[in-house]
Design goal:
Pfam families: Acetyltransf_8. The protein is built from nine helices and 18 strands. It is globular, with a radius of gyration of 21 Å.
Length: 337
C-alpha cells in the first residue's frame, strides 16, 4: 500500500497526471507538465487556501484539481476554505464550492466533492433518467434506463497505489473467467452456482436481458479480479423483506482472484462499487446487500465500510443479513482518496 505522506503525483482517468510541489505553506500543481495553479496554505486551525496564481486554465478545472489533491493527500481532511477575490461562478454552479457568510470566502466539503460524478464516470450517463412508473411482474417501479456498456467507473486509489475500475460483463470475453471463479470451492460455498460453461453462459445471458440487473467486472490496474451484480432493489426478490425505495440499489459480490483478497483490497473495491452506484443516479439513497448471515468475514468488511445490519431474514435458499448503507452516511464518512 502507498503512503499518502509520500504522494507527489495523482493519475486521472483521462490519462493526464497531476503533479504537486507541496510545503507546509504552499501548493503548486501542474497538469501534464504545464503549471495549473499555485496556492498559499494556512493549516491552523483548519486548512485555508489563498490563490496566488492561476495559469490560464478554467477556474473550475484548477480549483477541482487542488481540492482533489488535498483530499487525496489527507483522508481525514473534511473541509477546505478558499479565499478568492473573484466570484468562482463555475465552481459554485457545480457544487464544488459553497459561499460562506464572509465575503470572498468559500468552502469545499469532502462530503460534496465525492458526489461530483466527473471524472470518475467518464463518458457514462451522469444525469437522472426521466421517471415514469411502470408495472412488471406485479411490481410497480420506475422505468429503468438502458444499461451501459463498457467501462462505467475509474479512479486511482492513492492509498492502494492502483487503478480501480468497473466495466460491464462481455459474455464471450468473460465466460471462462466467470466459470473458473464460480467453480472455486471458496466461492461455491457461498454462491452455490458451480457448473459448466453452458450453465454459466445461460446464467449471464439471462441477467444481460434483465433490465433490473447490471453485471460488472471489477479490475485493479485493468486486470479482472471480481464479479459484481448491481440490481434495482424495488424489482428484486429482496423487496418484500424491507421497505425498498424506488432507487435503492443492491449488490452481489464475488472476488475470484485469490491474490486480490484481503481487507485493504476490499476497502478499495467495495467503496468504489458503492461510490459508482451513488453517482450513477443521484436519487439513489441506499445501497443494500444480503450476504449469508453466517458469512462473518464479508459482513465484517461491510461494517468497516459503514454498512450496518438492519436485520436477519430468511430467503427460501438461505438465512441472510440485510446490510444497508445510506448516501448521507457514505459521503459523510467518505474515506476515498
Amino acid at each position: 500500500m502507498s503512503n499518502l505522506n509520500d504522494l507527489t503525483t495523482l493519475a486521472l482517468p483521462s490519462g493526464n497526471c497531476l503533479v504537486a510541489d507541496e510545503t507546509a505553506s504552499r501548493l503548486s500543481l501542474s497538469l501534464q507538465g504545464q503549471p495549473l495553479i499555485e496556492l498559499r496554505l494556512t493549516r491552523e486551525p483548519a486548512l485555508h487556501l489563498r490563490l496566488e496564481e492561476r495559469f490560464g486554465h478554467p477556474d473550475g478545472q484548477a480549483f477541482w484539481a487542488a481540492c482533489y489533491w488535498l483530499f487525496a493527500r489527507d483522508a481525514a481532511c473534511q473541509r477546505l476554505t478558499w479565499h478568492l477575490d473573484d466570484v468562482p461562478t463555475e465552481a459554485l454552479l457545480s457544487g464544488l464550492l459553497i459561499p460562506t457568510d464572509v465575503t470572498g470566502q468559500y468552502r469545499c466539503e469532502r462530503t460534496l466533492f465525492w458526489q461530483l460524478p466527473q471524472p470518475w464516470l467518464g463518458e457514462s450517463r451522469t444525469g437522472s433518467y426521466p421517471q415514469q412508473m411502470v408495472i412488471s411482474d406485479g411490481k410497480r417501479h420506475p422505468l429503468r434506463p438502458i444499461k451501459p456498456r463498457g467501462e462505467v467507473y475509474r479512479r486511482f486509489d492513492a492509498r492502494l497505489g492502483a487503478w480501480v475500475s468497473l466495466r460491464t460483463v462481455e459474455i464471450e470475453h468473460d465466460l471462462a473467467r466467470f466459470n473458473r471463479w464460480q467453480n472455486s470451492p471458496r466461492v461455491a460455498s457461498f454462491w452455490q452456482e458451480e457448473g459448466s460453461l453452458e450453465k454459466h453462459r445461460e446464467y449471464l445471458s439471462k441477467l444481460e436481458a434483465d433490465p433490473h440487473t447490471l453485471t460488472l467486472i471489477g479490475c485493479f490496474d485493468d486486470q479482472p479480479f471480481a464479479y459484481f451484480e448491481a440490481y434495482w432493489a424495488k424489482e428484486d426478490r429482496i423487496a418484500p423483506f424491507y421497505d425498498a425505495a424506488d432507487y435503492d440499489r443492491g449488490i452481489h459480490m464475488l472476488v475470484g482472484e485469490e491474490h486480490h483478497r484481503g481487507p485493504h483490497k476490499v476497502a478499495s473495491w467495495l467503496s468504489a462499487l458503492v461510490h459508482y452506484l451513488f453517482l450513477d443516479d443521484p436519487r439513489t439513497q441506499r445501497v443494500v446487500a444480503e450476504p449469508r448471515a453466517d458469512n462473518a468475514k464479508m459482513i465484517g468488511h461491510m461494517h468497516n465500510q459503514c454498512f450496518h445490519c438492519e436485520k436477519e431474514f430468511d430467503f427460501p435458499h438461505k438465512r441472510a443479513a440485510l446490510m444497508m448503507l445510506g448516501r448521507e452516511r457514505f459521503f459523510d464518512r467518505c474515506s476515498l482518496v
